[in-house]
Amino acid sequence: MTTNLGFIGLSAGYSWAGKAHLPGLRLIKDSPYKITAVVNSTLEAAVASKKKNELEDTQTFGSIQDLLSQGNADTIVVSVKVPHHYEYVHAALEAGKDVVCEWPLGNGLQEAEELASLAKSKNVKTGVVLQARKAPPIIKAKELVESGAIGEVVSTNFLGYTDKWSQYTEESFPEYLSQRKNGANLLAIPVGHDLDALAFVLGEFEFLNGIVKTQFKDTQVIRIDQQGKKILTGEQAPKDTPDQVLVQGLLQSGATASVHIQGLQSSELTKEKGFRWEIHGSKGDIVLSSKSLYSELEEISIQISRLDDSGNALPVENLSVDYDPVAGNMKTFYQDYAKAKSSQHAHPQLNKSTGFTTFDDAVIRHRQIDAILRSSKSGKRETYI
Hints:
Elements: E1 3-8, H1 16-26, E2 33-39, H2 43-52, E3 59-61, H3 64-70, E4 75-78, H4 85-94, E5 98-102, H5 109-122, E6 126-129, H6 136-147, E7 153-162, E8 168-170, H7 187-202, E9 205-213, E10 218-224, E11 230-238, E12 244-251, E13 256-263, E14 275-281, E15 284-290, E16 301-306, E17 317-318, H8 327-339, H9 359-378
Parallel strand pairs: 1-2, 1-4, 2-3, 4-5, 5-6, 7-13, 8-10
Antiparallel strand pairs: 7-14, 9-12, 10-11, 12-13, 14-15, 15-16, 16-17
């Protein structure tokens, strides 16, 4: 049975839907999906998207209301800026449509909880694109942990860097990402993806302490010249979103966990460090690393180092594989999403390797982020499960 997709946010220019969703869907052999509708800010923009993306049989609309009243779509895919998620997702749910939404689900916890509750009341299938769970190295780490390959997990630490949200802002960096009111910042997006990957592999926090700090409130605007060198423009850009996120606590498994992710311009010592995630067990260690902070869209390497029965270190095994971290992860997401029945509320996936993140699963991540913010403000230990 074919599922007809209606896309909101697939443009003729650059868009995440065009970079990831569309290529991922086109990788699926004998695909159960067909893109039957495209919505953009204007009808003309939708027509341009149809032409650019070679969607010959696709309907075009200038508003979601027109799509819902006139279009032929079973599932609505929402891939637009975070402040608009609630409006489009809510409208689609009220119309009884299944929905796939980009992360974050809502602009804050309240919107996410409202959308998840509405989806359940409408008995529709929903998914949120937290696609780091679909990266082969992260799935491999989960398999190794669950098989006991490194014994009992006793601790984990995740250290991540990004040049974004730092003391410098590139001219091309979207202004809305630097304003807390928009819900699209370092904590909400990349930290949310990385925390979800950690939870997928190791489980949730029993409790946590968080520190969220904005060290750079007025950033220096830079442009990149043809040689790749950064040049000051003399302008400043205000930023009220965090550039330092620290989380420490105890996982439900009993393992200790520490996470530190920061927006900071890299030096020669840190330029090759996107993230390094260490998982320490009683019989060895697993290390995942990447040159980018973004576990959901950049290639990750994975290594394991085991101990013999006497505690001697065995040679490091490189378990890395070549994969497409953008279209490939999306392909797997859509394949797993298709396995659940349409027009039927999907229960939380409980970290299944072949599952997908539902609205209910996304709410857990929103609650975790809210707990980090509460802890940072109060200085107290917080829970979210």
